[in-house]
Fold this sequence. Notes:
Elements: H1 11-24, H2 30-34, H3 37-57, H4 60-82, H5 91-105, H6 107-110, H7 118-132, H8 149-162, H9 179-195, H10 200-220, H11 222-225
Helix pairs in contact: 1-4, 3-4, 8-10
Amino acid sequence: MTDLPTSPPHPKLDELIAVLARLRAPGGCAWDAEQTHESLVQYLIEETYELVDAIEGGSREELIEELGDVLYQVIFHSDIASASEGERFDIDDVAAHMTAKMIGRHPHVFGDTVAETAEDVIAVWDDVKAVEKSHRTSVLDGIPLGMPSLALADKLIGRAQKIGVIEADAPAVIGVSDEGELGGLLLAIVASAKANGLDAERALRVTLRGLQDEIREAEADPFDAGIIGTAG
C-alpha cells in the first residue's frame, strides 16, 4: 500500500471546530444550542446551492466563503452528534470514516489494482462499491429522490443503462453540440410548458417515477428484460 503523505497541522480548522463547540456549550449561543440535524437541513441545502453558484460564477473570495459555509455545516452536525444519545461521534470520526472509504475505493492508488484510465477507475470504483453495498437489492437504492429533477434524471438514466432498460449506446434523440445550446433548448422547453400552463418540474418527476417503475420491473423479471449479467 502506498504510504499516505504527512499531513500538515490545520490550526485554523481546529479553531473553527473550537468556535462551534463554544457556541453550543453552556453559556454560549442559545440558537446554536437548540439546533438539531433536522432543523439544519434547510441551511445545508441553501449553503450547497450558494456554493454551486460560487463555483459556476463567483470570485475566489466567494468560493472561499461558500466552501466555509458548507464546511461549517459538517462541523455543526458533527458537534450535535457528539452530544446526542445513540450517535456519539465527532468530526474526527467523520474524517476517519471518509479516509478509510477513499483508501478502500482507490485500490489502484493504495493497493495493487491497476487502473490506467479514468474509465478503468470508474470500473474499479463500481466494483468496490458493489461489495461495500452488497445489501442493496436494486440499482435505485441509494439515490436521493429529492434531488433536482434534471440531476435525478441523469442519475436514473445511468442506472437504467446499467441494467439494459435504456441502451447505453443508443443515438441521441436530439442532437446538441455544447452546453450553451443545451441550456437554450432546456429553457425553450420550460418556456413552452409555462405558455401551455404546464409544470415542467412536475412533468419530469412524473416521468421519472415511470422510469423507476420500469427499472424495478426489469430487476424483478431479469430474464424477460434481458438484463442478466449486465448490472455493474
